[in-house]
Design brief:
Distance between the termini: 53 Å
Number of strands: 0
Order of helices and strands: HHHHHHH
Number of helices: 7
Largest sheet: none
Shape: globular
Radius of gyration: 18 Å
Helix content: 55-70%
Length: about 140
């Protein structure tokens, strides 16, 4: 049972990595930002990890202050069956809340160059403008 669950996590992780590589190759990068023009809550995470690998902790925090959270939650999920369910659920809820609070703060901070709102660059906006012009 445990091996099946770990295999599912590995398959999910590999799928996400392959999707990310595909989006990067075709020039999309983050699909949320590509479609909406709004940075996603994880924006800067890859750059943060790249800086951490270079031992630039300050740079890692600059690009995403919660860059370490996914690793913590990976271990949390791997050992979910060894902890009380209520504690697990509360911990996940707290992590989501922290992620959203930081995301909203970063969106509203005009000095943050990593996370931004630029709807005019979103694919959906461009499609609406294209249809609105009657060129379809």
């Amino acid at each position: 049972m445990k091996n099946i669950r770990i295999n599912e996590y590995i398959k999910f992780g590999l799928t996400m990595v392959l999707l990310y590589v595909f989006f990067s190759i075709v020039g999309i990068g983050c699909p949320i930002k590509f479609f909406t023009g709004i940075s996603c809550p994880g924006c800067g995470m890859t750059r943060a990890w790249a800086h951490l690998i270079q031992l630039d902790i300050k740079g890692a925090f600059y690009y995403h202050p919660l860059f370490i959270l996914p690793i913590i939650y990976l271990f949390l999920y791997l050992y979910e069956d060894k902890m009380p369910h209520k504690i697990f659920v509360c911990t996940v809820a707290i992590g989501i809340a922290i992620f959203l609070i930081i995301y909203i703060f970063r969106l509203l901070n005009p000095d943050d160059i990593v996370v931004n709102i630029n709807i005019e660059n979103g694919f959906v906006y461009k499609i609406f403008k294209f249809i609105q012009k009657g060129e379809l």
